[in-house]
Amino acid sequence: MAVLGNPDMLTRKINLCHINAHITCRLCEGYLIDATTVTECLHTFCRSCLVKYLEENNTCPTCRIVIHQSHPLQYIGHDRTMQDIVYKLVPGLQEAEIKKQREFYQKLGMEVPGDVKGELCNMKIPLDQRNGDAKSEDTTNKEAGEEKPEEDNDYHRSDEQVSICLECNSSKLRGLKRKWIRCSAQATVLHLKKFIAKKLNLTSFNELDILCNEEILGKDHTLKFVVVTRWRFKKSPLLLHYRPKMDLL
């Protein structure tokens, strides 16, 4: 109650330098960009820094724990929560990073990826508000509804779709009643793990491996990536197998 009654405590400011150690990458010593966390020990780094490091190492750069003997890249994951925290704490960092990415792709003559476009759209209203040009919420919603009624109501149906057959190749798990599914090409292997775990009533999706052509797929791989790199020139549907982790065929 003393804190609630003291407005100074509620508005107390903290110097950014006091928390820099928690929001910077140990490898490049800069603020985290595309924050990626090691699932084994939960230490976080910039994705590009960590991927480059793991090309020649299989241990965590901070605590030196072995991530995986042969496939450490499959045991790291994007940490959206941490990245959101960094962007909120460091003024101008998100805007500067998106500008760099945009300039990079334009310099190469490539289309700006959807993720960057999405972040630019999300930032549009806050930037307008800072300049005093923001419109009222009712007016904005009305205009958005008039301009893009179909997109708001039918967002994912325009995505490229992938047909998949999910087969079980282990006697320790039962097969799915409906093994043929169709979903967005932007869905990841992690999404499939969660889907299978829910259908089979497993305690955790981390208990599963998903394979294509007898090769374990990384959880961050999109289905588009899997099709292009492992199922090219083969007929639909994309055939994937699932099994418990460490279950030898």
Automatic annotation (TrEMBL):
GO biological process: nervous system development
InterPro entries per the UniProt record, alphabetical: PcG_RING_finger, RAWUL, Znf_RING, Znf_RING/FYVE/PHD, Znf_RING_CS
Compositional bias segments (type: Basic and acidic residues): 130-147
Location in the cell: Nucleus
Region described as Disordered: 129-155
Gene Ontology terms, MF aspect: zinc ion binding
Domain RING-type, first and last residues per copy: 25-64
GO cellular component: PcG protein complex
Origin: domain of life: Eukaryota
Keywords carried by this UniProt record: Metal-binding, Nucleus, Repressor, Transcription, Transcription regulation, Zinc, Zinc-finger
Key word Membrane present: no
Protein name, per record: Polycomb group RING finger protein 3
Source species of the chain: Oryzias melastigma
Taxonomic lineage of the native organism: Eukaryota, Metazoa, Chordata, Craniata, Vertebrata
